[in-house]
Amino acid sequence: MKLLKSSLLGSAAAFAAIGAAHAADLPVKKAVPIEYVRVCSAYGAGFFYIPGTDTCLRLSGRARFEGGYMTSYSRQYGNGGDTSGYQGRLRINLDARTQTAYGTLRAFVRLDAGARTGYSGVGTSGTQQRIGQAYPGLGIDSFGRDQQFANVDKAFIQFAGLTAGRASSFFDFYAHDFEFAGATAGSDIASTNLLAYTATLGNGLSATISAEDPVFRRSPIYSPSLNPNGVTVNANIANFAQTVSPSPVIVGYNGAAPSRYSFVDVIQRSRMPDFVGALRLDQAWGSAQVSAAVHELNVGNLANGTNGTQAGGVGSGPFVSIPHTNNSYGYAVQGGVKINTPFIAPGDAFYLQGAYGSGAQLYTGYSSFSGSYSQNAATIQGQKFNQFFNDATVNPITGQMERSQSFTVVGSYLHYWTPEWRSAVFASYGEMDFSQKARASQGAVYSLVNSLGGAGGYGANAVGTPGTRFYNLSEALRDTYQIVAGASLIWSPVKDLDIGVEGYYTQIGVKNGRVIDKDKSPTAYNNVAGINAGTFVPATATQDSVSSFRMRVQRDF
């Protein structure tokens, strides 16, 4: 027994020795060192190093609720009547920076998205829908009142003075900094594609030259929206999928009388970028900027035109040669100043800005309230008449473009009552003018088209025959003005939380004469003959106005 026990113990010891030898031959797994996220203090609070790199990243964002009310004067058959609107929005920012021998290399991206319902303004946006940033619901009760949107608001690179990508236009200055709705008249293109260079000149002075995407600065060239077959293709802002926008030109005469017309497609092609220059000063007292822009206007060829001979005209009489519509170059200039007023209260500031444009309405921002990228957008519920925002008209006699003019002025003041309570007050005035020659020439071709039975598709875009009562009352290409005034009150009980309300009043009006009141006489534009004969007398107006209020809860992080 003793011998058996000794034998077993010896065997166990031998196996243990062999096992130990094998274990010594196996690779030893060491724990990978944990690389903790390190704070990057070089660029301010919130930055951290991306593990394994020398790039600093800041993640931030925003959540927002907004509800609003806008007066409505009509529940016309087919549209109108909405008074409330609601939306929820999100924003995600990523800011990446790396220090190089040439300075800081920065990449910044921002995504905005949201869901909104109700009236135009808070609930939906025709402006965003027209440029593909918003997508409408198509239900019976939701179309025009339900909208999702997503926008690559920013996606740019900055390096050694270069800015390339999607960013705010360098033309802009005030850009509705103290407003919720951005209803005042003034340039505010927060998202465009550009390539720019900024030179730092010292003492807070900088100069920028920028080539910018022209698509986001285009207001349509005037079209009465009639095609050769008399089918309306752009009668109202609900049409978002237009591929041709015909403008009639006279191509034949019997003696001295116009007798034949054809069409030019006035949808603009992407050819030249807009060129923007800005000179900016930033100092302790505030900042100032002067900027200028050149904006190309272009159209397509005459319908069925070959070698200067028009083959597709409508009417009778010999053809005449109409030259190709030459490109025209609009321009805009702007000046603004921001004055910090800490002697009133810390954080207080005052903006004053003015802009003038020829063939460049979106650079003056005259359409900010009503909406852009349509020649006559309507935002007021039950609107009496529409303003026209065309950058130019094609003279139907010469075939050449005639630019419109616009100007705006805006002022805004932000005041801190306490560190938690602040208010802003703001106001703007603007005008949009078309030359009498432009309107009269459109009236001349309207007379020809009407005499040949083709003006039925003009609708509210019709200028009418000069000298008639309808011509005097038509809203098309009328000179208009716009006044906006408003104020807000915001409570910030804790850092980065805003709870506020804003209200504003907008008035639009014609500078001369009267126009048909489409709210009280909704069928007037279908009875041009009756208006001219005096058998139908439409209601008329000189101005229209609306009040709007909205409430916002916003958390930035």
Structural class: mainly beta
The largest sheet has its strands arranged as: 2-3-4-6-7-8-9-12-13-17-18-21-22-23-24-27
Number of strands: 27
Assembly of the depicted chains:
single chain
- Uncertain runs are 1-24, 227-239
Envelope shape: globular
Strand content: 35-45%
What's the alpha carbon Rg, rounded to whole Å? Answer: 32 Å
- Amino- and carboxy-terminal Cα gap: 80 Å
Report helical residue fraction: 10-25%
Mean pLDDT level = 88
Main sheet: strands, sense, barrel: 16 strands, antiparallel, barrel
Description:
- There is one protein chain.
- By secondary structure, the protein is mostly beta strands.
- It is built from 6 helices and 27 strands.
- The longest helix has 24 residues, at 2-25.
- It is globular, with a radius of gyration of 32 Å.
Key features of this structure:
single chain, 557 residues, mainly beta, 16-stranded antiparallel β-barrel, three-stranded antiparallel β-sheet, 6 helices, globular
What are the SSEs and their pairings?
Elements: H1 2-25, E1 48-49, E2 56-70, E3 84-100, E4 103-118, H2 126-130, E5 134-136, E6 146-159, E7 162-167, E8 192-202, E9 205-212, E10 246-254, E11 257-265, E12 274-283, E13 286-297, E14 305-306, E15 309-310, E16 314-315, E17 328-340, E18 349-358, H3 361-364, E19 392-394, E20 401-403, E21 405-416, E22 421-433, H4 436-451, H5 469-473, E23 480-491, E24 497-510, E25 515-516, H6 528-533, E26 540-541, E27 543-556
Antiparallel strand pairs: 1-2, 2-3, 2-27, 3-4, 4-6, 5-6, 6-7, 7-8, 8-9, 9-12, 10-11, 11-16, 12-13, 13-17, 14-15, 17-18, 18-21, 19-20, 21-22, 22-23, 23-24, 24-27, 25-26
